[in-house]
Design goal:
Chain lengths: 114, 115
């Protein structure tokens, strides 16, 4: 069983389109995250949700909207896609309570905006 | 403010030799954890090893060990007996008790193991 899964794995789309990436974790974790990894491999946190509540919202354009229907799912919707949105997007989850709890990452979604 | 610095963008090591990947961190928090992740060319992020700020012993996991020097605020990853499969990006990360829901990542080090 995959611990953190993301769909789709690859996404190629035109500028201006709207797209969604889905994430699910079956680890029973309380906290989920979205990261963006750019072409230089730098990982930047975008959002963090704890028990469906948004707790971290870094300076991300409001074209990006996360949605957490339940604590096992955190989806990312992107409106009006731009060339600069091309990146790998990682979903991750971790358990609340102990600082030594690591994050578990999904396989990533490779987004290419043409 | 929390910050992780990895000063080696790329490194080479000969197969079967040991290699140290540097990581320094900045935090005013007393309770925090340090993590290392591996990202092979296939793209997934793999957790390798953890060190807690109050741990007195350096963490070890198989061929991975962490050289933790708290006073210097460094948490270097040591890979012993390098293998070709160790070629990957390596990320150092930190999480503190007082900013619990945020992991801070370094910029990564690309390790190439030569046969």
């Amino acid at each position: 069983d995959t611990a953190v899964s993301q769909t789709p794995k690859y996404l190629v789309t035109q500028m201006g389109n709207d797209k969604s990436i889905k994430c699910e974790q079956n680890l029973g974790h309380d906290t989920m995250y979205w990261y963006k990894q750019d072409s230089k491999k730098f990982l930047k946190i975008m959002f963090s949700y704890n028990n469906k509540e948004l707790i971290i919202n870094e300076t991300v354009p409001n074209r990006f909207s996360p949605k957490s229907p339940d604590k096992a799912h955190l989806n990312l919707h992107i409106n009006s896609l731009e060339l600069g949105d091309s990146a790998v997007y990682f979903c991750a989850s971790s358990q609340e309570g102990l600082v030594q709890e690591t994050q578990y990452f999904g396989p990533g979604t490779r987004l290419l905006v043409l | 403010a929390q910050k992780i610095t990895q000063t080696q963008p790329g490194m080479f090591v000969q197969e079967k030799e040991a290699v140290t990947l540097d990581c320094t961190y900045d935090t005013s928090d007393q309770s925090y954890g340090l993590f290392w992740y591996k990202q092979p060319s296939s793209g997934e992020m793999i957790f390798l090893i953890y060190q807690g700020s109050y741990d007195e012993q350096n963490a070890t996991e198989g061929r991975y060990s962490l050289n933790f020097q708290k006073a210097r605020k460094s948490a270097n990853l040591v890979i012993s007996a390098s293998q070709l499969g160790d070629s990957a990006m390596y990320f150092c990360a930190m999480r503190s008790l007082y900013n619990f829901n945020k992991f801070y990542f370094g910029s990564g080090t690309k390790l190439n193991v030569k046969p």
